[in-house]
Amino acid sequence: MLFKFKTWKQIQEIKERVIIDILNSELMGISPIIDYAKFLRLYKKYEDVISEKEFASILEINYSTMINGTRVKVLKSMPREIEQLIQRNEKTLKRRIIEDIVYSGKIGISQFITYPRFLEFYESYKEILTEKEFGKLLEIRIENIKTGGRSKILNSMTDEIKKQNEKCAKAIIVELIKTKRVIPGQLMNYKNFLKLYEPYKSISTDREFATVVQYDIDNVKYNGMSATILKSYINKRMQDTDEVKEDIVAIQKSVIEQKNNSQTTDSMCL
After folding, report:
1. Measuring CA to CA, which residue among 110, 104, 25 is closest to residue 59?
2. Is 110 exposed, middle or buried (0-12, 13-18, 19+ CB in 10 A)?
3. Are 144 and 127 in contact (CB under 8 A)?
4. 3-state secondary structure string across the chain
5. pLDDT in tens, 168-202
6. How many CB atoms lie within 10 A of CB 38?
7. Which pTM was predicted?
8. C-beta of residue 71 within 8 angstroms of C-beta of residue 123
9. Among 198, 195, 208, CA closest to 168
10. Which of 68, 90, 189, 258 has the lowest CB atom count within 10 Å?
11. Whether the Cβ atoms of residue 166 and residue 228 lie closer than 8 Å to each other
């Protein structure tokens, strides 16, 4: 008999609490289908309150089927709520994975990954996601790399990063001109270029910055010459729009955060 020695009110309170927890649980990952191992992780919080079978009944799953090795679907009577949870978790977990393995410099967008490397990254998420689910968030098919192949991760982010970098480049140019730190078309030697680059070195390489400000870094760096900077902006009227102002603020914030974290990144403004 389930929920023995509990009043109807106690049972309802427990059920309500469990359902609320489940519908807000990152531990559910990105699938409503769970195995016994994940069931136990979800159950741990309630092991002193209710039995495994009672917990299973609240989740609307067949306990016997599950402990015999079959994966089961939770809360089948609440498909809309479960779908919302999965969507939230997918977005949150993907962002965290990107921050963890890409923004930390461990691997880049659209770079190839092998199965051993995949497993290194997966280690931190194995209690939440299956290998297949983790692969889905990296935008790869786990079957392709398990057999010795390799796949590019997060291909869909290439265009997003490109657009972000273009916005950042525009904001940097506006900031440099508006603050009169540079005059478009002026000649600049390498020493002065490095002074100009100094505030941005935590969010870009010197070569990336040189590309943004239209500076021939190779010719100057290796031949000891000076080169023009922002030549295409000579006599060009800069519009300091609200959007660009917001981008400038975001860049300044990024610079501060990167300095605080003592990290550098692979590309502009990340």
Report:
1. 25
2. middle
3. no
4. CCCCCCCHHHHHHHHHHHHHHHCCCHHHCCCCEECHHHHHHHHHHHCCCCCHHHHHHHCCCCHHHHHCCCCEECCCCCHHHHHHHHHHHHHHHHHHHHHHHHCCCCCCCCCEECHHHHHHHHHHHCCCCCHHHHHHHCCCCHHHHHCCCCEECCCCHHHHHHHHHHHHHHHHHHHHHHCCCCCCCCEECHHHHHHHHHHHCCCCCHHHHHHHCCCCHHHHHHHCCCEECCHHHCCCCCCCCHHHHHHHHHHHHHHHHHHHHCCCCCCCCC
5. 888 888 888 888 888 999 999 999 999 999 988 87
6. 21
7. 0.65
8. no
9. 208
10. 68
11. no
- Residue type (1 letter), 8: W
| Beta partners for residue 152, in sequence order | 112
User: Is 32:74 a contact under the CB 8 Å cutoff?
Assistant: yes
Q: How many CB atoms lie within 10 A of CB 47?
A: 11
Q: Per-10-residue mean pLDDT for the chain, 270 residues long?
A: 74 94 95 96 94 96 96 96 96 93 84 96 96 96 94 87 78 86 92 92 83 90 88 73 52 50 45
Helices 157-178, 242-261: axis angle to 10 degrees equals: 100
Residues in the chain: 270
166 and 227 in contact (C-beta within 8 Å)? no
pLDDT of 71-80, one tens digit each?
999 999 999 9
